[in-house]
Amino acid sequence: MLTRMRTALKFMTYGLVIGLLFAPRRGAETRRELVRWVTSTARDLTGGIRGTMGAQR
To answer: What is the b/e burial string over 19-57, where b = at least 16 CB atoms within 10 angstroms of the residue's CB?
Structure first.
């Protein structure tokens, strides 16, 4: 199972890199949007983990 997860993560990374190379926006705009997305996703993940941990207590 770990091998499949690594493979999926690897191809997801490849897709992200290729998508960024062919992005229709300027580099600064693309980086800004990427940072916003990563920040938002990290908040969602940590909020979900905290909610799960709080429910187990």
So the answer is: eeeeeeeeeeeeeeeeeeeeeeeeeeeeeeeeeeeeeee
**How confident is the model over 11-29, as pLDDT tens digits?**
999 998 888 788 788 888 8
Could you list the residue range(s) of the whole structural domain that residue 12 is in?
Answer: 2-56
Q: Give the count of domains, the chain.
A: 1
pTM: 0.47
